[in-house]
Structure formats: structure tokens, C-alpha cells
Amino acid sequence: MHEMSITQNVVEICEKSAEGRRILAVVLEIGELSGVVPEAVEFCFEACTAGTLAEGARLAIDRVPGRGECGNCATVFPVRTYFDPCPACGAYGVRVVAGEELRVKELEVE
């Protein structure tokens, strides 16, 4: 489960940003195409925050839907996988424009 190490890294990033202040809430953005399972991050969060400035912090996850842009006709459309064809022209040269995110969006500290 790589979500454990990802969650540990998120906590480290939050602690550095908090500059010694207690962390009350963390909001993450996780894209549907990121390969990260939000439920697994939620499961790991409590264990990863134990004994840190983020212990007891609330975690919210904003899920970012996948979107792609067709390289052939420039149509922007929802994608669920990297292999979705363009619904307008059927081409497979799709550039992902959203859904790969994995970032700390907000941090609430004391």
C-alpha cells in the first residue's frame, strides 16, 4: 500500500508548512487518475499523524475528476483512464489536463 508512504510525506509537508503550530485541518486534492486511493489515505492519516503536530487534525479530500483534451480536434472531455478515446472524433491522442493531482490544497493551523 503506497498510500501509507504518501500520507507520511503529506504529514511531513504539513508540519514544515505549519512552522511549529498545531495543525487543525488538512485538505488534499487527489485526482482520479493519480493512482492514489483516497479511502486508503483516509485510513492511513490517523496512524501517520500520531505524535505529530497534525495529531487529531481533520482530513478532507477533494477528488479531482479526470479530463482530457483531444490532440486531434481539441475537444475537452471527462476521462476515466489514460486510454479513453475522444468522444467527438474517436482519436486516441488525448492529453490529460486534470485528474493527476496529489497536493495539499489547504492547511488550517492554530
Kindly identify the CATH topology of the domain at 3-65 and 99-109.
hypothetical protein PF0899 fold
Give me the oligomer status. single chain
SSE pattern: HEHEEEEE
Mean pLDDT: 95
Query: Which overall shape is indicated by the principal axes computed on the Cα atoms?
Result: elongated
Percent helix range: 25-40%
Radius of gyration: 17 Å
Class derived from helix and strand content: alpha+beta
The strand order across the widest sheet is 2-1-6
Quickly give the CATH architecture of the domain at 3-65 and 99-109. 2-Layer Sandwich
Mind explaining what this structure looks like?
The protein is of the alpha+beta class. The chain has a domain at 3-65 and 99-109: hypothetical protein PF0899 fold (2-Layer Sandwich), CATH 3.30.2320. It has two helices and six strands; from the N terminus they run αβαβββββ. The chain has helices at residues 3-18, 38-49, and strands at 23-31, 58-64, 67-70, 76-78, 94-98, 102-109. The strands form two sheets. Strands 2-1-6 form a three-stranded mixed sheet, covered by helices on one side. Strand 1 (23-31), helix 2 and strand 2 (58-64) form a beta-alpha-beta unit. Helix 1 (3-18) crosses helix 2 (38-49). The protein is elongated, with a radius of gyration of 17 Å. The relative contact order is 0.26. GO terms for molecular function: nickel cation binding; zinc ion binding. Keywords: Metal-binding, Nickel, Zinc. Involved in the maturation of [NiFe] hydrogenases. Required for nickel insertion into the metal center of the hydrogenase.
